[in-house]
Amino acid sequence: MVKAWQVGETGEPKDVLGLVELEEPRPGPGQVLVRVAASPVNFPDVLMCRGEYQVRPPLPFTPGVELCGEVVELGPEVTGVAAGERVIGGAVMPSGAFAEYALMDAARVLPAPEALSDAEASALYIGYQTGWFGLHRRAGLRAGETLLVHAAAGGVGSAAIQLGKAAGATVIGVVGGPEKAEVARELGADVVVDRRSEDFVAVVKETTGGRGADVVYDPVGGETYQRSTKCIAFEGRILVIGFAGGTIQSPGLNHALVKNYSILGLHWGLYNERDPEAVRHAHAELSRLAEQGAVRPLISERVALDGVADAVQRVGDGRTVGRVAFDAGA
C-alpha cells in the first residue's frame, strides 16, 4: 500500500483532499511507474479540486500535475526509458504526483537536469515550457525589448522573468504585496511594481520613455489585461496565458487595430500532442540554461506529504510567496 492525496468530491482543497492508502498504481501500455521525489503545487491543481479546470479527471483522483522522480517500473511496450532514471514531466491522471508513486507517459518523460535539486527540477516543466513557447515561439521576444510580466512571483510568472532576462530583455514584474516584490527582485526583474500601491501602466510608460512594453505576459486576465492594452508598444504582443483573476476578458479588436498590437493565445499543453519534438527541444534549451545558472526555479517552501492539502489551499487563496513544492525529502 502507498500513501496518496485523493479528491473524492469537488470543492475547496482543504475540504476535499484526503490522505489515504491505496494499492500501488500499475503502469499500463506506454506508461512508467515513478517514485515521486518532488512535485510543485500549480494553480491547475487547485482548479481540479474545485472542478473548474478544463481537464476533469474521473473521481476519485490524485492531483499533482508535474513531478520529478525515479522510474521504478516500465509498462508494456515501453522503450527509450530505463528503471532508475531521474526524470521530470507530467503525471497521468488520475494517478497524480501528490503521492508516493505516480504514473507518467513514457513518450513524454524528460531527463531531469543534474544542475537542479529534485524540487527545482520538478518545477522546470509546465511553467518554464509555457514561458519558453510563449516568449520565443509565440511572441518572438528579442534582446533589448521590454517584457511586462503579471503575477511575476507565481508559477508561470516567475519562469517568465528568468527566461526574459536570459533572452536579453528588460523585465518589469507586477506583483501583489511587498513579500512577492522581493521574490520578483530575487528572480531578476529589473523593475518591480506592487499593484496594491502602484499603477503598473504609469511605471511601464516611465520605464520605457512612453513607448510601452513590447511583450506582455498575462496569466491573470480580466482588468489586468484591459489595463495592459494602455501600455503596450507599437507592434507589441500580448500573450494570453490564463485567467487566474477569474474573469475572461473581451478584447477590443478595434483598439488592437488602432495601436497595431497582437493578441496571442497560448495553450502549451497542445504542443505535447501536435509538436512533441518542439517540447523536447525546449527542454534541451531549458536544461542548458539551468546548467549555465541562467534559470533556476525559486522554491520558497518545501512541504512533506502530509502538508500538501494545506499548501494547495494556500496557493488557491493567494497566500503563498514563490513556488511551494511537495518534497519527499522534506
Structural description of this entry:
The chain has two domains: 154 residues, Quinone Oxidoreductase, Chain A, domain 1 (Alpha-Beta Complex), CATH 3.90.180; 143 residues, NAD(P)-binding Rossmann-like Domain (Rossmann fold). Strands 3, 4, 5, 6, 7, 14 and 15 form a seven-stranded mixed sheet that branches. Strands 10-9-8-11-12-13 form a six-stranded parallel sheet, with helices on both faces. The longest helix has 17 residues. It is built from twelve helices and 15 strands. The protein is an alpha/beta fold and 330 residues long.
- What is the CATH class of the largest domain? Alpha Beta
Output the CATH homologous superfamily of the largest domain.
Medium-chain alcohol dehydrogenases, catalytic domain
Q: Give the structural class.
A: alpha/beta
What is the β-strand count? Answer: 15
Could you please say which CATH topology of the largest domain applies here?
A: Quinone Oxidoreductase, Chain A, domain 1
Distance from first to last alpha carbon = 21 Å
Protein name: NADPH:quinone oxidoreductase family protein
InterPro entries: ADH-like_C, ADH-like_N, ER, GroES-like_sf, NAD(P)-bd_dom_sf, Quin_OxRdtase/zeta-crystal_CS, Zn-ADH-like_protein
Domain Enoyl reductase (ER): 14-326
Structural topology:
Elements: E1 2-7, H1 13-16, E2 17-22, E3 31-40, H2 43-50, E4 66-74, E5 86-90, E6 101-105, E7 110-111, H3 118-122, H4 126-138, E8 146-149, H5 155-166, E9 170-175, H6 178-187, E10 191-194, H7 200-207, E11 213-218, H8 223-228, E12 232-240, H9 253-259, E13 262-265, H10 269-274, H11 276-292, E14 299-303, H12 308-316, E15 323-327
Parallel strand pairs: 8-9, 8-11, 9-10, 11-12, 12-13, 14-15
Antiparallel strand pairs: 1-2, 3-4, 3-6, 3-15, 4-5, 5-7
Organism: Saccharopolyspora taberi
Protein name: NADPH:quinone oxidoreductase family protein
InterPro entries: ADH-like_C, ADH-like_N, ER, GroES-like_sf, NAD(P)-bd_dom_sf, Quin_OxRdtase/zeta-crystal_CS, Zn-ADH-like_protein
